[in-house]
Every structure is written in C-alpha cells, then in structure tokens.
Design a protein that fits this description.
single chain; mainly alpha; globular
Length: 205
C-alpha cells in the first residue's frame, strides 16, 4: 500500500552499497540468487522452530531484494534479472507460511494454506495485469525503475514483511495473523480484478 512512497528512501539507502558491489564486480543476478538462498535458509529455520534466526534471514533476503535492483540500475538492467527477481520473490513469500505449517501442522496448516491461496490471488492478478499492461504500453508512474508493471494494492511488499516479522516475533499467534493477512490479500486481489476488468475492457491502443 505504501511501497511507492518508500521507494525513494530505499534507493537512497541502497545506493552506496550498490556502488561498492558494482566496483567489486558483483552482478545483480548473483545478488538475486544469493538472496533467494538466504530466504530458503529462513524457511528451514522457521520449520525447525528457530524463529529469531528465521526473522534475521527474512530481513537479509529483503536487503538483497533491494540491492539487486540498485546494482542493476547502475549497470544494465536485463529482462532475465526482472524475471528472476519477481519469480523468486513469489516462491519466497510462499515459503514463509509453509515453514510455519511444517513447524506446527496441527495448528498452522490450515491458516497457512489459506494464506498461500491468497498469495496465488495477489500474485496471479499482479502478473496478469502486468503482461497485458506491457502489451498495451501502459507504464506504472509510481515505479518507473521496475522491469515490469507494478500494480499496487492493500497488501504490497512492505505489509507482507510486517506480517512476516509479526509471525516470527509471535509464532503462537500465527493462525490469527495469517487469517487477518489472508483477508487483506483477498481485498487486494479483488481490487486488482476490478481494475483489470475496467482497464482491459477498453479497446486497446
């Protein structure tokens, strides 16, 4: 919901580190892949009940997610980089609730399944809109540096990480928090369906 407003601050914070990484010859794709590996390690930590470690790894994953784009902008952004970034992000987002489900399936499995289902709604509506927006040469003014069209909503990256932090700080509250976040994600999906219905109901260019 507020990702676009946080983007300038994120870019200012990541720029010095990104310049150092470029000087060291570390490319954006490598950062994306290392960040995903860190996220997978966070999933394993949550599964094992090491929630503090899981939280630290989740936050490191998000740092890497900001740095890969910053490095790409300083070098040469590629379609492969944009693809890797969004594809691996969606898997990472699903791994976090899966970790809680595997850690305590008797209480967490159902809320985790409902939350992951809501992620399918937000993710599929996001990507479907992005593909058709590209075909119609529609650009996202709030995200001019992104490799694909970014369609906002009630639950975006910032809100997702806030809930992931809450999951790790209060793991016993995961079921309630997951249901709340799933409801918010379905609102996001519904608003994206509504926008797509109206935007793509018009004749193309």
């Amino acid at each position: 919901m507020i990702d676009s407003r946080l983007l300038p601050l994120q870019q200012r914070l990541t720029a010095p580190v990104a310049r150092a990484l470029v000087r060291a010859g570390i490319g954006a794709d490598k950062i994306t892949l290392v960040g995903f590996a860190i996220g997978v390690a966070g999933f394993v930590a949550i599964w094992a009940g090491a929630f503090g470690l899981g939280l630290a790894l989740i936050l490191l994953n998000r740092v890497a997610d900001g740095l890969d784009g910053a490095v790409a902008r300083l070098t040469a952004p590629t379609d492969r980089g944009a693809f890797l970034d969004i594809a691996l992000d969606f898997v990472f987002y699903a791994l976090v609730p899966l970790g809680f489900a595997l850690n305590a399936p008797e209480v967490n499995a159902l809320p985790a399944a409902i939350l992951i289902c809501s992620f399918v709604g937000t993710g599929s509506s996001f990507l479907a809109f992005s593909v058709l927006a590209c075909q119609r040469n529609i650009s996202a003014e709030d995200y001019p540096s992104k490799g694909i069209y970014y369609l906002g909503g009630l639950t975006e990256g910032f809100e997702t990480i806030l809930f992931f932090i809450a999951f790790c700080l209060w793991p016993a509250a995961f079921p309630v928090l997951a249901y709340i976040f799933a409801a918010a994600a379905w609102i996001t999906t519904a608003t994206r369906w509504h926008m797509g219905w109206h935007v793509f109901g018009k004749s193309g260019p």
